[in-house]
Amino acid sequence: MKTKLLIVLFALTFSSFTFDNVYVWEKYRLQITVPDDFEVAKNTDEEFEMEGDGMSLAISIFAEKITLADLEEATIEGAEAIKMTEIDQAHATKINQLDGFYVEGYLDDHRVMFAGLMDQRTKTTLFVAITFADDDANAEKEAFKIINSLKRLK
Length: 154
Known about the structure:
alpha+beta; seven-stranded antiparallel sheet; three-stranded antiparallel sheet; 3 helices; 27% helix
């Protein structure tokens, strides 16, 4: 009886975990960790996109050279350019070697976390958009986890 209970407990414990996958956008040596249901939808020199259950991720390079001081305004303008609505105030962030700002808002009835990030070493600027259902509290936690996993590799 103890053996069966132990097997059931073990199975339940491991079935509740989701395993994350690590991807690298080779062109920019940018590493990101996403849930295991994500798949690469686009991987070019300018864009990296992934899709998962109820979530999507898009990373694009901002071609214009700007300073970190201008990135807050550029992030808000970028969110407006993709037609986000109800954009909140920009929040400063530092994610590993990337400095920048992020805003949250809506796009086509979906929540969006939109960030403008700069690698101070290379002066590469990128925009990250994570889209998810507004009523999915778990997706919001995953979005923060995804964006905080970004890391420039050497």
